[in-house]
Amino acid sequence: MTTRSGFLSFVGRPNVGKSTLMNALIGEKVAITSSKPQTTRKTIRGIVTREAGQLIIVDTPGLHRPRTLLGERLNALVETTLGDVDVIGMCLPADEPIGKGDRFILEQLARYPRAKVVAIVTKTDRVSSTQVLNKLAEVGELREWTLVIPVSAERRDGVDEFIAALIPLMQESPLLYPDDAVSDESIESRIPEIVRESVLEELSDELPHSLAATLTDIVREGNRTKVFVSLIVERDSQKGIIIGKRGSMLRLIGERSRPAIEKLLGTSIYLDLHVTIAKEWQRDPKALGKLGF
Ligand SMILES: Nc1nc2c(ncn2[C@@H]2O[C@H](COP(=O)(O)OP(=O)(O)OP(=O)(O)O)[C@@H](O)[C@H]2O)c(=O)[nH]1
Ligand SMILES: [Mg+2]
């Protein structure tokens, strides 16, 4: 049987559910997600294989108006990705009105004429079915779309239909990855992301943009692994918040992160979290380079 395989990337305002949708499509949590905007900071590939072919989903930080050097670098990354993919999926949440941010992204889409563009109405579980229908009609008016698709990643409503609809949009091609691959992310790069996700979920709105996480060391000792993660913030006060009273917050972050890391490594772990300050790292080319941006 001839198969179709190709690349798909999502765009959409921060927090519309791009990473959650990718995880639902591949059936495993590869990308971190959170209720805070700009959770995703790098491109991650997730792979979906069916008899008909393969979708390689490239999760990105999403296009936005940059405010720091980090923001500019993230946008450049997204632009390169979008120039290469076969299909761009624009995500519009069912439970929010279409706004300025969406129109900004719609305008940007004209710069990627190579890709087919589909509209994805996300988070359909948050509204009634009538509201979903109205939203689909409203979205349909915005521009010419190859398809308009509703989905709830949280309830997995429409996820299989989504895959079945997307594979035919790809070019005839053999599978690009082995049929059991789910991601090209290394364990080493997934670990600090899990810790960053825990911090985002535990802490208030002030911190997310200032936070970075890196794996500093990993030592396997039989059925136990020592994992050393460094959390980087911009200010003394932020360091205090992450550590908490007598280290209580840091312990909570550790407890929240441990199960996912143990699952990934298949061993029990000793998790060492260390908090450091790098002033204005989001605007400092040298610091950004060190952090891999
Ligand atoms: N109810 C509901 N919530 C969802 C759904 N999809 C995502 N969410 C929630 O929406 C929030 C944002 O999800 P993400 O997947 O991190 O959003 P994103 O677009 O990747 O965000 P950035 O990486 O920050 O641009 C999280 O709290 C998710 O749990 C859905 O289908 N239904
Ligand atoms: Mg994301």
From TrEMBL:
Gene3D superfamilies given in the database record: 3.30.300.20, P-loop containing nucleotide triphosphate hydrolases
Ranges of residues in domain Era-type G: 4-172
Alphabetical keyword list: GTP-binding, Nucleotide-binding, RNA-binding
Record GO biological process: ribosomal small subunit assembly
Record-level GO cellular component terms: cytosol
Assigned protein family: Belongs to the TRAFAC class TrmE-Era-EngA-EngB-Septin-like GTPase superfamily. Era GTPase family.
Keyword GTP-binding: yes
Span of domain KH type-2: 199-279
Pfam families, per the entry: KH_2, MMR_HSR1
NCBIfam families: era (TIGR00436), PRK00089.1 (NF000908), small_GTP (TIGR00231)
Coiled-coil stretches noted in the UniProt entry, renumbered to this chain: none
The keyword Nucleotide-binding is assigned to this record: yes
InterPro entries: G_ERA_dom, GTP-bd, GTPase_Era-like, KH_dom-like_a/b, KH_dom_type_2, KH_sf_prok-type, P-loop_NTPase, Small_GTP-bd
Protein name, as recorded: Unannotated protein
Organism per entry: freshwater metagenome
One function term, GO molecular function aspect: ribosomal small subunit binding
